Automatic annotation (TrEMBL):
Domain of life of the organism encoding this protein: Bacteria
The protein's name: Anti-sigma factor antagonist
Organism (species): Nostoc parmelioides FACHB-3921
Domain (STAS): residue spans on this chain: 1-108
Segments passing through the bilayer: none
Similarity comment text for this entry: Belongs to the anti-sigma-factor antagonist family.
Amino acid sequence: MNQQVQVIKLSGIINTANSQELREEITHLLNSGIKIVLVDCQDVIFMDSSALGALVLAFKTLRAAGTKLFLCSINEQVRILFELTGMDKVFEIFNNQDEFNQIILANS
């Protein structure tokens, strides 16, 4: 896989207790020269608004540094959260890593 792509796999419940950790992990990538971050939510059971806030903040931080953030494999609950908040228009969301690889990596 492309050296400039970093995949972050989330799992379980992402909420106030661990969303700060998620933000720190993504922000930490800024110093590593990564150009594309893919957040894989395949194993996420539940995500709350603080997790969404952490993702939005990370998205803005990364974008300001010229790094793109994408999401893939979100479940129905997460999709509804994104749609209700309009974040499905902000984030580019792929069905899975394969689709991401075909569309993004093929064009980079």
